[in-house]
Design a protein that fits this description.
This is Molybdopterin synthase sulfur carrier subunit. The chain has three helices and five strands. With about 80 residues, it is of the alpha+beta class. It has a single domain (about 1-75), classed as Roll (Ubiquitin-like (UB roll)). Strand 3 (about 55) and strand 4 form a beta hairpin. Helix 2 crosses helix 3 (about 40-45). The chain starts with a strand and ends in a 6-residue tail after the last strand.
């Protein structure tokens, strides 16, 4: 199934604004993140397991166990602090 991935802030500076990717049925946000890490060294660096990231599925904050569906939009962005 195909999903759209959007990147924000410092991640966007490295990977660009968005990309589409085919993922297996039953994929989650976490398995998508792991799959994206295999695409390039830049992906591995900014999406790696030691990196603090937030995710949203169809514009709603979610954790990595959230299930994907055909046509889903997943956004990755660094945590934000207020002030």
């Amino acid at each position: 199934m195909k999903v759209t991935v959007k990147y924000f802030a410092s991640i966007r500076e490295v990977l660009g604004p968005h990309e589409s990717i085919e993922v297996p049925e039953g994929s989650t946000v976490g398995s998508l993140r792991a799959l994206l890490q295999t695409r390039s060294g830049a992906h591995a660096e900014v999406l790696g397991p030691g990196r603090a990231l937030r995710a949203a599925l169809d514009q709603t904050l979610c954790d990595e166990s959230a299930a994907l569906r055909e046509g889903a939009e997943v956004a990755f962005f660094p945590p934000v602090t207020g002030g």
